[in-house]
């Protein structure tokens, strides 16, 4: 965690966290006005630009990483959008990962009641379960199953008494777990998490996750037509897309999107493992797996390959 | 900067990022020319595959000087768009109806060759 700056965001007039964190780390900058994503996007821009400026002038050591701590109600998509779209930031910063913390004791309640919680879990690359030290037995496993139902691509790590190993948090390998869950006790592909059995209707909009592969190489240009059209029509309901797409080259294209915001796709030089098939996870709100599959099947002639379902988790 | 309209384009749509980056990054003159040709080929191909979808809506798109795309309907109306991100809203504006890849009517049209 050396050479890491932390941008803290908080509501309220007294910037208590700011003072605490400044004592711990001189690179902490307090963002004003509360919510980073909606009301103070420019503050995030200026805070990140300030860090570049201070680094350039030698006032702070060269930075390896910036951690942006958002409010509990934040939507991660506008933050990603800010970094991807700003004319300067997009050339100096690379979004590494979205980390979401989930309170193990109250997580189920938050996921039931708050659409923001589901959006954050869907956007996460890494989920940290907090307060596992005071959780009842069974709560951790139930929450893990629930989170896997929402976002099968996220790796889940546990923090007891607020302690978490930074290496586990920022381990590059944890950024993509395409087929194998990190914990063998988690639900395997093809199974339905126990929290999503029939009749278990949740309070928030229905969230579906769909893991699929393609039966051959995909025409990347044509896939762009389909996916951009999907995001135009249903972007707000496409909470997350993450995948490796076989485009007939030596390596796959790494696809990563949160709602309307798509990471610049990376054309990798080689596959990360032996499995050289496309695999994509869609996390959607109200859009059923069958609808996505039917659409991709209809686009088969254009995209060059058809979809095959690997795993689907539905709320009911 | 777009030399035709003077628009300062700072955002490259994700669908065009790879080809744009390659076309801009090449140092070797031969590779630069090849990457520019690839970029142009990809734009023409993007218009061709997108037309297979747009046919259902009575629209047609074509590359416009390698800088924009021009979207036309059967009544002679047209819209200039920067990329696929702005093409779909413009298409909806021209047709007056929503375009949705999950629409079964579109699926049927694609199965019948558009």
Structural overview:
The complex is a heterodimer of chains A (316) and B (114). By secondary structure, chain A is an alpha/beta fold. Chain A has 11 helices and 13 strands. In chain A, the strands form 3 sheets. In chain A, strands 7, 8, 9, 10, 11, 12 and 13 form a 7-stranded antiparallel beta sheet that branches. A 3-stranded parallel beta sheet of chain A has the order 2-1-3, sandwiched between helices. In chain A, helix 2 (41-56) crosses helix 3 and helix 5 crosses helix 6 (115-123). The longest helix of chain A is centred in the N-terminal third of the chain and has 16 residues, at 41-56. By secondary structure, chain B is α+β, with helices and mostly antiparallel strands. Chain B is 48% helix and 14% strand. Chain B has 4 helices and 3 strands, in the order H-H-E-E-E-H-H. Chain B has helices at 17-25, 29-54, 84-95, 104-111; strands spanning 59-64, 68-73, 78-81. Chain B has a 3-stranded antiparallel beta sheet. In chain B, helix 1 packs antiparallel against helix 2. The longest helix of chain B has 26 residues, at 29-54. Chains A and B meet through helix 9 and helix 10 of A and helix 2, helix 3 and helix 4 of B.
Write the layout of secondary structure elements.
The complex is a heterodimer of chains A (316) and B (114).
Chain A: E1 4-9, H1 16-24, E2 29-31, H2 41-56, E3 65-69, H3 76-85, H4 89-92, E4 99-103, H5 107-113, H6 115-123, E5 126-130, H7 139-150, E6 155-158, H8 166-170, E7 207-214, H9 220-234, E8 238-245, E9 253-258, E10 261-262, E11 266-267, E12 279-285, H10 289-298, H11 300-303, E13 307-313
Parallel strand pairs in A: 1-2, 1-3, 4-5, 5-6
Antiparallel strand pairs in A: 7-12, 7-13, 8-9, 8-12, 9-10, 9-11
Helix pairs in contact in A: 2-3, 5-6
Chain B: H1 17-25, H2 29-54, E1 59-64, E2 68-73, E3 78-81, H3 84-95, H4 104-111
Antiparallel strand pairs in B: 1-2, 2-3
Helix pairs in contact in B: 1-2
């Amino acid at each position: 965690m050396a050479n890491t700056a932390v941008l803290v965001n908080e509501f309220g007039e007294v910037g208590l966290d700011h003072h605490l964190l400044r004592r711990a780390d001189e690179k902490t900058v307090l963002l004003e006005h509360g919510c980073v994503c909606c009301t103070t996007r420019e503050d995030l821009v200026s805070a990140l630009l300030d860090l570049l400026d201070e680094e350039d002038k030698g006032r702070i050591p060269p930075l390896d990483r910036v951690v942006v701590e958002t409010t509990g109600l934040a939507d991660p998509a506008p933050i990603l959008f800010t970094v991807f779209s700003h004319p300067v930031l997009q050339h100096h910063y690379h979004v590494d990962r979205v980390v979401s913390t989930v309170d193990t004791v109250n997580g189920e309640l938050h996921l039931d009641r708050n659409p923001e919680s589901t959006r954050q879990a869907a956007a996460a690359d890494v989920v940290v379960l907090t307060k596992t030290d005071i959780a009842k037995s069974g709560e951790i496993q139930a929450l893990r199953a629930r989170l896997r139902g929402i976002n099968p691509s996220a790796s889940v790590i546990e923090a007891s008494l607020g302690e978490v190993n930074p290496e586990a948090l920022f381990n590059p390998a944890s950024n993509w777990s395409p087929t194998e869950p990190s914990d063998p006790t988690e639900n395997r592909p093809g199974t339905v998490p126990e929290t999503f059995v029939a009749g278990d209707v949740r309070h928030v909009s229905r969230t579906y996750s769909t893991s699929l592969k393609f039966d051959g190489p995909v025409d990347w240009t044509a896939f762009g037509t389909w996916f951009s059209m999907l995001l135009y029509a249903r972007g707000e309901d496409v909470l997350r897309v993450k995948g490796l797409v076989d485009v007939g080259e030596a390596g796959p294209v790494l696809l990563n999107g949160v709602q309307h915001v798509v990471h610049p796709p990376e054309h990798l030089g080689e596959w990360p493992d032996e499995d050289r098939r496309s695999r994509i996870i869609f996390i959607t709100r109200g859009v059923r797996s069958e609808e996505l599959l039917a659409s991709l099947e209809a686009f088969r002639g254009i995209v060059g390959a058809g979809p095959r379902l690997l795993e689907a988790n539905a709320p009911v | 900067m777009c030399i035709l309209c003077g628009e300062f384009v700072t955002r490259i749509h994700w669908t065009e990022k790879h080809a744009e980056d390659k076309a801009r990054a090449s140092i070797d003159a031969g590779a630069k020319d090849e990457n520019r040709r690839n970029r142009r080929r990809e734009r023409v191909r993007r218009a061709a595959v997108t037309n297979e979808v747009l046919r259902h809506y009575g629209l047609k798109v074509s590359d416009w000087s390698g800088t924009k795309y021009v979207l036309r309907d059967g009544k002679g109306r047209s819209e200039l768009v920067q990329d696929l991100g702005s093409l779909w809203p413009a298409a909806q504006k021209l047709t007056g109806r929503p375009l949705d890849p999950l629409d079964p009517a579109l699926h049927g049209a694609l199965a019948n060759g558009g």
